[in-house]
Amino acid sequence: MSSSPESSEVETLLGYLSWKRRHVIDILDGLDEADLRRPVLPSAWTPVGLVHHLALDVERFWFRAVFGGDPEAVASFATSADAWQVPGDRPASEVFDLYREETARADKVIASNGLDQTPRWWPDHRDDRPPRDLRAAILHVIVETATHAGHLDAVRELIDGRQFLVLD
């Protein structure tokens, strides 16, 4: 049985998105709690803060809230919390688990909607426009995740010299 063109497109998009999601987690593998919380760049974000941002401001926002219309997800954006900040008593492992949970829930939203699905919710406080469809949102999230994975590559190399992609 052959797959439909849309299911093939979804598989391709999810393949690239999953690859970049793994990149985010894998580049941080082996860092201790102190290094995950240490700001390395002048902008002062931390690796664990970036993963927290990806979990909430990217995966939860775009998929569960905007395209899923999940009331719990939508309600989580009622206040303007800074997702880049992780409470000191919250272990990095919990943030990584949250990221994995949000990506799994995002994948369910993607699987249960067509790529032409329009947004179900958009926050009143944003002055930009929502994406036209789920396809555009997936592409946006791939780009954002890949960009942040690159940020983490640079930070990891500054911390201990480890490189994710080594070109010989």
UniProtKB/TrEMBL annotation:
Organism superkingdom: Bacteria
Matches recorded under Pfam families: MST
Matching Gene3D superfamilies: dinb family like domain
Protein name (Swiss-Prot/TrEMBL): DinB family protein
Natural source organism: Microbispora hainanensis
